[in-house]
Design goal:
- There is one protein chain.
- α1 packs antiparallel against α2.
- This protein is of the alpha+beta class and 303 residues long.
- The protein has one domain.
- It has 7 helices and 10 strands.
- The longest helix is centred in the middle third of the chain and has 14 residues.
- The chain has a 10-stranded mixed sheet.
- β1 and β2 form a beta hairpin.
Length: 303
Amino acid sequence: MRVNSILFLGAILFSFQVSGAECSRVFEGLDYGPAVRLTGTFGKAFSTSNWKGSLDQRMQMLQKKYPKLVSILKDAKFKTVRGKPKRVVVIDAKKGVPPKFLSDYLNAVSGNTVSFPLDPGAGHLYSRFGSQVVAVYGSYDQSDYRLPNYSDRIEPLIELTHQEMKNLSVYLNQIAPNPSEVLGQSNYSGVASGKTNGKLEGNQPTDSSEGHNCTSWICLAPIGADSGESLLSLVGGNISREVHTNPGWWSKFLATMTGNPRAQTVVLWRVQDENETDYNNRSRKPRITPAGTTVIPWDFGEH
């Protein structure tokens, strides 16, 4: 599915913005050691004080430290009961957060993960690596991760191995100084075919009529430790669905469609009152099904 809405590239970055049956599965083979110390552009992305342990353990540590701010929903679903159950970490930031919370949050989530913090109906993809947020579409933009201001935020996380994080750091440091040299031309629709050169230092589309957009450059990142598998492949994505070409479909895929054990955690930042309706006059309030499942409304912006 191709992007067909206007990308607000000039928007201010981030102005928007425990385990049940399936969520209990742990990503096998994950190295829970210290996060990779990135060099170059990402030299400051990871702190030496990143929390240790599995992602599940680190989320529980965050909840224990901030019991009034953080709650963990087991087997919750987004938008529809047909979605895959997820471990949803809810952060109630409606009244603000303590000064140290942001650094603790980043220390909790940064170790061997990548995430995608997005507004409701987001039209542009942002990717978090450690404490840094990157947006790529023609140009390369990098900024410190910030708390949401006026809007709720969804943030699906993907767990990576130590080697995959190293590969990702190489990829990012290659792209930062000259995106077009590594990724080729930009194209509004993204690399729908999924066919690229598949190298960390050169991931251009093989078809000259295609080009990367804000979503395909990261979804098709060839970071797999075995044979350079793409990030999309690592979480069980299918090229034919084209979720790798659209920020709305990518976030919906991670939050509702994939049952891959790498993608079982979603952070939900609450800034707005759940009793208020959204800009489409739809309820923000979660509902509980007769079976006891929490279903959270969310506008993924599938355009």
